[in-house]
Amino acid sequence: MKVALSLLAASFVLSSVAAFAAGTTKVDGWISDSRCGAKPMKDPVACVRSCIKHGAKPVFVDAQKQVWSIDDPAVVKNFYGEHVAVVATTNKATKTVHIDSIAEIK
What we know:
By secondary structure, this protein is an alpha+beta fold. It has one domain: CATH 2.40.50. Helices cover about 30% and strands about 35% of the residues. It has 2 helices and 5 strands. It has helices spanning about 1-20, 45-55; strands at about 25-35, 60, 65-70, 85-90, 95-105. A 5-stranded mixed beta barrel has the order 1-2-3-5-4. The chain is globular and about 35 Å long. The protein starts with a helix and ends with a strand. The relative contact order is 0.19.
């Protein structure tokens, strides 16, 4: 009986972890700003920094040029205008992304 209960508990824990991980994906894209979004820029780093300095919010633009609000903008402050790979959870209903990790793509 103890073995069966232990197996049932382990199964529950593993299925919970799998369900959470299913919503987290690795996505390539760019860190832009809410003013310019997916528009092409000659100097994206300077443009995004300038727009954010003047009140725009940082956003994530994916490969399909969909613009996502970032729920914790402080995570991307060193990546303005950069091409990045993120591990993130998306909320399609609110077009919001929660970035767990970020790395520049060179």
